Amino acid sequence: PRGFPKLIYRASLQMSLSLEDTWELLRSGLPCWVLVSVIVLGAHVSSVGGMQDFSVYRMQHFDLHGLHYGSRTAVVNMEAKGALSTMISRRCVIVKWAELTSETLLDLVNKGAGAVLVLLPRELSTIEDDELQMWRELESHLLSTEIQIPVYFAFEDDQTLEVFNHTRLWAEGERDSSAAASLGRMLSGYSYQLITEAVVEPQVMAGLRITSIMGKLSGQGLEQSLPTMALLAHYDAFGLAPSLSFGPDSNGSGVAALLELARLFSRLYSDPKQRPKYPPFLLCIPV
Q1: In what order do the strands lie in the sheet with 213-216?
Q2: How far is CA 281 from CA 1, 161, 217, 233, in A?
Q3: Cα 51 to Cα 36: distance, rounded to the nearest angstrom
Q4: Helix or strand or coil: residue 83?
Q5: pLDDT surpasses 70 at 197
Q6: Which region among 49-53, 83-87, 122-126 has the lowest average model confidence (pLDDT)?
Q7: What is the 3-state secondary structure (H, E, C) of 166-209?
Q8: CA nearest 97: which of 244, 196, 200?
Q9: CA-CA distance, 179 to 13, in Å (whole number)?
Q10: Which residue has the higher pLDDT, 172 or 26?
């Protein structure tokens, strides 16, 4: 959708060898001129494809009673890696939503991941009820946690799955730790660079106004001595990512019911002969 942040991605040749790998290659008898040629080649190769982009949705970020919740940062400019990669420090790790748990996310943060991109199914309606319940529990837990790195969500499509599948294959290849395998990956492989487009670090929203809508009908007798029936509904949706918080049942249906009750009560209380004793108090509030 227009107006949402985007992640720009481009494929670049992966041209890097550790000092340990370089020393092992020299000990194996590889001529120095071959290694020097590879290094010179790496210095002149960058992008192997044009830039493309896809929409992403940032994780909720808010403060409440002096405590911090949600993802605290937003800017991403780093290489994409799979969750099983041995080199995720200061990289953007891509995981599918079904693979994500609170323990997995905490482990990625502790290992130094620079950002996390979670891929959601193309059709959310296809998710089984038990899987959906697990996701709700994860969502509730993450919303009560402070996370210092950017966390974004995107839907699975040809573009995002291309990046995800590449990072997974690359991570599997990293399990072969020999220097020769490292050289082979360096010469034949490429990586994806993920960059947030026109995104700045979040700032405190000053002067934010929140509106509550209230209504009250008078009952029979002295109001101060009558008990009050309170009927409430929240009129906005709340979720892990604000832009993905669709609210038919949380709480569009509740607001619709409250409005209908207000209409019926208004007609009922307008006739003094049939006015109930207890006054209802109707309140429609933000989450």
Answers
A1: 213-216, 280-285, 229-234
A2: 39, 51, 7, 12
A3: 30
A4: coil
A5: yes
A6: 49-53
A7: HHHHHHHHCCCCCHHHHHHHHHHCEEEEEEEECCCCCCCCCCCC
A8: 244
A9: 18
A10: 172
pTM of the predicted protein model: 0.73
d(CA 268, CA 266): 5
Q: Are 239 and 183 in contact (CB under 8 A)?
A: no
- Least confident range of 116-120, 188-192, 268-272: 188-192
Supply 179's token pair.
């220097």
Question: Comparing 19-23, 104-108, 213-217, 273-277, which segment has the lowest mean pLDDT?
Answer: 19-23
Residue 178 φ/ψ region, left for φ over 0, alpha for ψ in the -120 to 50 degree band, beta for the rest: beta
Q: What is the dihedral of CA 269, 275, 276, 282, to 10 degrees?
A: 10
Burial class (CB in 10 A: 0-12, 13-18, 19+), 251: buried
CA distances from 44 to 36, 184, 198 (A): 13, 18, 28
Q: Which two tokens stand for residue 174?
A: 């990293």
* CB distance 112 to 90 below 8 Å: yes
